[in-house]
Structures are given as C-alpha cells and as structure tokens.
Amino acid sequence: MDAKGTVLGRNFIEKDRLYTMTNKLRKAQVTSGWISAPNFWRRINGIQTHIVNHTSHKIVKFAHEHGCDVIVFEYLDYMRVPKGFWGAKKLRFKLRYWRKKSIQNKVEEMAHYLGIRISRVNARNTSALAFDGSGKVKRNDKKDLATFTTGKVYHADLSASYNIGARYFIRSYQKSISEKKWLSLQAKVPELAKRTQQTLSSF
C-alpha cells in the first residue's frame, strides 16, 4: 500500500497444517487420558518452526521485491483465550498466538538487515470492521470470509490487512500536521478520533 492508500500488490501465504495434528493429539488424549505424547509434540513443533521460517521469508521477500519502506503488523497484546475454547480448539489458539509472535520477531530481525522498518498498530477491530467503511462484518464459521453490511463477501484477513496498512499511514499523517488541522479532519471524518474505528475508507 502506498501513502495514498492505493493497494499496489498482495500475496496470500498458505495456511498451516496444524489442525490435523492437534486433532489427533486431542483424540489420543480422550482415549488414553492425559499423555505426554512426545511424538505428537515433536511433529507439532516441527510444523510450527517450518511455518515461522516459511512465512517470515515470504513476507520479507515480498516487501523487498516491492521496495517497501515499512512492514506493518498488528500489536499483539497479552493472550486471552476466548470463552468456549477448549481442547484442540484452545490448543490451536495458543499455538497460533505463539506463532504470530515468533513470525513478527523473525521478520523484524530479517527486515532490519535489509533496511526495512517495522511498525505496529492497534489491532482492535481491524477484522471486525469492513475496509470500505460499511461497518461491522459477519464472519462465517471458519472465520475466513466476512460479509459486509452491503452484502459483499470478502476475505476477512485481506480486509483486515487493508485496515492495518491504513492505520499506519493515518498515524503518520497525524504526527506530521498541526493539532488544529487534525481536529478539522476529525470533524469531516469522525472515526479518525478513535484508532479502533479507523479503516481504509477513513484514510
């Protein structure tokens, strides 16, 4: 995304293969009670390491090829397991959180070597709000698709990524202009007053 909010390129990275392994581990524990299951954990940790390395290299390579100055991530707050998450579902949530932290740390290390900066923005509502400003979205059971209030169906992570990029530029612009001018912009675009409500349309 450039400083005008134009999306210049995008890339999807293949999702992980942890679901099968965590389900097998859960079934084994249901059958035999709690077990240490070293073979399962060795394979899970191996997949985790592969995902971190593969994803980090993909992100940095994509940014470098497109001449990016900054790679923007969501700020990962303290992990809170949502209500109703238990068993394999709870385990996958924890593994996903640990994986995100590892990916961000590895990307930061690799990006700095290439002279690319890292920035983090407020994560609240980046997925919950449609990038076009139409309001809150409805997610399907798999959480990969989002239905906007206009009826349009969009990839949930792609919509969130647009909002993440926009929040970075909005924050940068706010720092570069006077308070008086910023207040006048807020009068025209009220959602600018709250970072948790900012979307690509706000930008």
Automatic annotation (TrEMBL):
Superkingdom of the organism of origin: Bacteria
Keywords for the protein's UniProt record, in alphabetical order: DNA-binding
InterPro entries per the UniProt record, alphabetical: Cas12f1-like_TNB
GO molecular function per UniProt: DNA binding
NCBIfam families from the UniProt entry: IS200/IS605 family accessory protein TnpB-like domain
Name the record gives this protein: Transposase, IS605 OrfB family, central region
Species in which this protein is naturally found: Alteribacillus bidgolensis
